[in-house]
Design a protein that fits this description.
The chain has 3 helices and 6 strands. The chain is an alpha+beta fold. Strands 2-1-6-5-4-3 form a 6-stranded mixed sheet. A hairpin with a 2-residue loop joins strand 5 and strand 6. The chain is globular and about 35 Å long.
Amino acid sequence: MTDNTDLASVRHVIDRLIGLADNFDMAALDRIYHDDIEVIMVDVDGRPHISDKPAFKEIVRRNQESSADDPSIPNITTYHHIQANSDKALVLVSRKNGLSGADRELLISIDLIFADARWQVIREVIFVRPDTLSSA
């Protein structure tokens, strides 16, 4: 039996999620994202944009089509906090990458639930850090 409170297993899921997102693996993302996921992106002007699973998958798909990943911008993920109990987990990370076509840092809060014998992302709150936008 898996110990759902094991923080390393929660981090492994997020590491995998990041890898799948960076490689646009839509089938695997579909399995990690819960059917009832809510994604709230707060843009540089402080405006929230709320997406459900189909809408967020469409955003990822559009990013894949228009991605101009700049190899000079490193993909960096910093874990700030991980907590878990038997059926819920919370992960706070910051990410910096060039997939959006700009060198920007995102602060992301990820809520997970343990359902169907696996951790699934039920909510992501993504803040674009306006103080990290490149001036190019």
